[in-house]
Write a structure and sequence with these properties.
- This protein is mainly β.
- The protein contains six helices and 29 strands.
- The protein has five domains: about 35 residues; about 90 residues, Beta Complex (RNA Polymerase Alpha Subunit, Chain A, domain 2), CATH 2.170.120.30; about 100 residues, RNA Polymerase Alpha Subunit, Chain A, domain 2; about 90 residues, RNA Polymerase Alpha Subunit, Chain A, domain 2; about 90 residues, RNA Polymerase Alpha Subunit, Chain A, domain 2 (Beta Complex), CATH 2.170.120.30.
- Strands 1, 2, 3, 4, 5, 6, 7, 10, 11, 13 and 14 form an eleven-stranded mixed sheet that branches.
- The termini are far apart.
Length: about 425
């Protein structure tokens, strides 16, 4: 007893030990008071995600899907003892917010009531309020269709500079697959690929287009996805320099004797008003080349060749010209016909395993044009035909293949017309 009394006396009369004991006792009392007598407080849990579960729901049974916004969050206000609601343990995972879909029975925008509950019913806080009681969600049946695309180029001012002409815009794709809600898909009147020009152009411009779908009133449709493959849709806006120039033609496969001194020709109309792509006032050509004429198209005398204005590359006609007639006068020439025998017919690019079997072993009535004296010197053995089998159909039982015909050692004669052999 004397030892215990001495120990007790030492504790209560030792200032250091008494200070430590007092501190521990104060902490214990504070904890007891804080827990047992803690005041009720409120807190707001921010950005709690809203769950819209369509599994086995009425919308799912009607094949209805959500289009547009589907990710919603709300703020939830809770109350409870201060030390609980203000702790990290009360967070977005502590509550569940579920959108009610039981009354969604048709396509359209629906107002869904939100039900908020505690994730764990034993948690010691209560749900007081939410920032939203309802959300607006669009439901519809999924559908997809292919639509033609139309280009639309717009500008706040002029699309092209003065002295230039804007051609018809060119799209990199003709059609697009549009998918989304059936109601919107069925309302599509047009699908436009749109491009805005920031400044007046003096050269052709190609840039990415923005694709939109519109109804019959010109209203923009929503919740749609446009699928046009792996590459984006572009619009090319052709720009042409406007000028008036004489028309001209070029020639190809020209015998060497006529390269410097060719045959005369006349073009009707002889002068045209056009827009030319890729040039300006400093680089515009002296004449507009409307066609390249192959010498195989020419025979002795007057040759008339019709050129469609639309076929002239990089040029548009602004004077209403739809066709041009080229008249080539082949003077000082006559013609003879020959037969090319099998010995002078050769084949190139023969597919592996393919056997060449010509139904006819010769090419008859080959017309050769040139001066009479030169023609009299030509023999059938001087004429050769080459057939390129790069594109032969190895499975076909019979087919025509074009022959390229040339004349050996002749500077002023040429083969007129187109010829072929029949392969079997």
């Amino acid at each position: 007893m004397k030892k215990l009394a001495g120990f007790t006396h030492k504790i209560f009369y030792d200032n250091k030990i008494l200070m430590i004991f007092s501190f521990i006792l104060a902490v214990v009392i504070w904890l007891v008071v804080s827990i047992a007598l803690s005041p009720i407080d409120t807190a707001v849990i921010k950005d709690v995600p809203v769950s819209i579960d369509l599994t086995n729901s009425v919308p799912a049974q009607l094949d209805l899907q959500i289009f547009g916004q589907s990710d919603f969050t709300v703020d939830v206000e809770v109350s409870g003892k201060r030390y609980i609601v203000n702790s990290d343990s009360v967070n977005a995972d502590s509550v569940k917010v579920i959108a009610q879909t039981a009354y969604v029975d048709a396509a359209g925008k629906h107002t869904l009531a939100l039900k908020v509950t505690k994730t764990n019913e034993n948690d010691e806080f209560e749900i007081i309020d939410t920032s939203e009681e309802y959300i607006e969600v669009y439901f519809d049946v999924y559908k997809e269709l292919d639509f033609p695309i139309e280009p639309k180029v717009s500008s706040k001012g002029k699309i092209v500079k003065d002295g230039y002409i804007a051609g018809e815009p060119i799209l990199s794709a003709d059609t697009v697959t549009v998918s989304g809600p059936a109601t919107e898909i069925d309302s599509i009147k047009s699908v436009l690929a749109e491009m805005s020009v920031e400044r007046a152009l003096d050269s052709t411009l190609t840039q990415a287009a923005i694709v939109n779908a519109y109804n019959e009133n010109g209203g923009t449709l929503h919740y749609l996805t446009f699928n046009y493959g792996n590459s984006e849709i572009t619009i090319t806006q052709p720009v042409y320099f406007e000028t008036t120039k004489p028309a001209a033609v070029d020639f190809k496969n020209t015998p060497s004797a006529y390269i410097e001194n060719g045959f005369s020709y006349v073009i009707t109309p002889s002068e045209v008003n056009v827009g030319i792509q890729g040039v300006d006032k400093d680089s515009v050509p002296d004449a507009i080349s409307i066609a390249t004429i192959d010498f195989s198209e020419l025979k002795p005398g007057e040759n008339s060749i019709v050129v469609n204005a639309e076929s002239v590359p990089s040029v548009i006609f602004t004077d209403g010209t739809e066709k041009l007639v080229v008249t080539v006068n082949v003077t000082g020439c006559t013609q003879r016909t020959f037969t090319i025998n099998d010995d002078n017919i050769s084949y190139i690019n023969i597919p592996e395993g393919y056997t060449v079997d010509s139904v006819k072993k010769s090419i008859d009535f080959v017309t050769v044009v040139g001066p009479k004296d030169s023609l009299n010197k030509i023999q059938a053995s001087d004429i050769y035909a080459v057939i390129d089998l790069t594109n032969v159909d190895v499975s076909a039982s019979e087919q025509n293949m074009l022959a390229k015909i040339s004349i050996k050692n002749s500077a002023d004669c040429w083969v007129s017309g187109e010829y072929s052999v029949v392969l079997g």
